Amino acid sequence: MAQGDLADDEWTVLEPLLPLGERGPIPDLRRLVNGVMWRFRTGGPWRAMP
Question: Is the dihedral angle over the CA atoms 48, 9, 19, 28 positive or is it negative?
């Protein structure tokens, strides 16, 4: 887990609030959420996302 990523207890609270994908759970959803948070925290362009 990198600095600024969601902690396990934070993810436990957030995960039930997120919608399911069209065909079930979205794989690596936690990684996607952490990437979106990084983008808005740093203001970096989408193409620079890790």
Answer: positive
